[in-house]
């Protein structure tokens, strides 16, 4: 049975306090992983009381998931993302232009390692992030792929979920499993190569990639 994500109640939140807490939570999570991230440490770094955090989030998993979601939202906002309205060519252009820079700037390799390492010990963290942030974006991505399939930009038998799994898996392999630091240019070249393998060569050619 899917566990529902709890929402905090209480006094109205101050936006700057939320930001300070989530920034502190993300920073500590990147440094120390899930087990090394506590309300007490986050409160100390954010300059708030533990009670202030408890009023907002019922668990560390929910707090860290919200911090990860905020990072994702900021990256998409900077790229002018409006997923539900995008055509495939627009999405590809956004991914190629902004994705590699965001991955480098946000230390995506360490972030992926921390999230992957949380799977056995913090399933609620992964579930919360998936339900609140990943699933809606995957649904929007699938709708874009389905439109592209109906317009014959992609083959008629393209499976939107498998398409995303192959794309995401190839990028995770590059960033997480291959040794050595990865720069923006290398990640962009790899992303374009993967997209070509997925049948988007003509789209990349039109974009001059």
TrEMBL record:
InterPro entries: Homeodomain-like_sf, HTH-type_TetR-like_transc_reg, HTH_TetR, Tet_transcr_reg_TetR-rel_C_sf, TetR_C. Keywords: DNA-binding, Transcription, Transcription regulation. SUPFAM superfamilies: Homeodomain-like (SSF46689), Tetracyclin repressor-like, C-terminal domain (SSF48498). Pfam families: TetR_C_11, TetR_N. This is TetR/AcrR family transcriptional regulator. Signal peptide: none annotated. One of its GO terms (molecular function) is transcription cis-regulatory region binding. Residues 38-57 bind DNA. Residues 15-75 form the HTH tetR-type domain. The keyword Nucleotide-binding does not apply. It comes from Nitratireductor mangrovi. Transmembrane segments: none annotated.
């Amino acid at each position: 049975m899917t566990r529902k994500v709890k929402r905090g109640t209480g006094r109205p939140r101050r936006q700057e306090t939320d930001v300070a807490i989530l920034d502190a939570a993300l920073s500590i999570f990147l440094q120390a992983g899930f087990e090394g991230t506590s309300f007490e440490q986050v409160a100390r770094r954010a300059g708030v009381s533990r009670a202030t955090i408890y009023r907002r989030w019922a668990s560390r998993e929910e707090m860290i998931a919200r911090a990860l979601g905020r990072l994702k939202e900021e990256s998409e906002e900077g790229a002018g993302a409006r997923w539900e309205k995008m055509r495939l060519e627009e999405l590809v252009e956004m991914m190629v232009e902004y994705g590699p820079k965001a991955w480098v700037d946000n230390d995506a390799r360490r972030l992926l390692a921390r999230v992957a390492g949380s799977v056995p010990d913090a399933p609620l963290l992964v579930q919360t992030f998936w339900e609140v942030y990943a699933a809606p974006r995957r649904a929007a991505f699938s709708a874009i792929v389905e439109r592209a399939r109906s317009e014959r930009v992609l083959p008629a038998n393209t499976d939107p979920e498998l398409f995303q799994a192959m794309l995401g898996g190839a990028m995770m392999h590059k960033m997480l499993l291959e040794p050595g630091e990865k720069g923006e240019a290398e990640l962009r070249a790899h992303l374009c190569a993967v997209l070509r393998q997925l049948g988007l060569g003509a789209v990349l050619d039109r974009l001059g990639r």
